[in-house]
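Exercise 3.2. Students should predict the tertiary structure of the chain below and write it as structure tokens, then compare their answer with the key that follows.

Predict this chain's 3D structure.
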Amino acid sequence: MSLLEVDQLSVDLVAQGAPVRVLDRVELAIDAGQVHALVGESGSGKSLTALSVARLLPDTLTRRVAGTVRFDGEDVYGLDPAGLRRLRGRGVGYVFQEPSTALNPVMRIGTQIREMLQLHRPKEATDAVVWRWLERVGIPSPDIRARQYPHELSGGMQQRVMLALALSAQPRLLIADEPTTALDVTIQAQVLDLIQSLQRELGMAVLLITHNFGLVGEIADRVSVMYAGQVVERGPVSAVLNAPRHPYTAALLGSVPRLGDVRESLVVIPGTVPSPGHWPGGCRFHPRCSRATPGCATDQPAWREIAPESWVRCPYPVEVQS
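Answer key:
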């Protein structure tokens, strides 16, 4: 049994007074200790999927949820408030996309970490433990940093604080949503190395949300590719990166610049990701797909297992080059 199992998850949110489907039959499975990457363009539904895992979407905006989300065998959408409090922190920890807005601007760094400890590990809610977590994520002079406010730190330091905050509860699954956004290349590498080393040290699972395939190849064991509220391909990271089968995955990889590439211009995927409520019929990707047939505009593609543990939602997968 996987640590996290998302099965046929569909979510409708309220927009302008009417329900709009934002996730459609999403499937995802993460084993204990595994690093799983969720990849796709902005607007594909990656962050909404991550928020749905621990029921963090506002109840006032959520009109309907179908399917199941199970964490360690428990139905997340059947948990009472006490169960949700246990899940959020000790079960699932989050590193959000923008640390400058995720951290409380009027609370000192140490106070925010101590608050997490008081909720989930009250016996460890001491200055010494707070400093130890700051030191563990590579923050020098932790006793001094603990007394500072978020705005007094650089973006890279803020991201490290977010990691310390999430990890201090010692979650079994860390969800890192675009953890290197707005950081320069050197700091990106440092944050990624830090996540990887802590994942190995603590033995936790990681769901890495990104649009950067370069990060995926460095850290992930498995990858799922999202488009317009659906997962369209999933499998071992080496299989997906070396032989993408869904036309969308192949197009994404084709648009990534590579060292030594002599092309005059990058491959460009025409059009944009359709917004929820405006998804096309049939295959969502067909208006942008060079392999589309007339049937793609009307027929919903079903999952196909094209290799052991590799699945694609397309009747015309890309052929593997021999």
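Discussion points: The chain has a mean pLDDT of 91. The radius of gyration is 20 Å.
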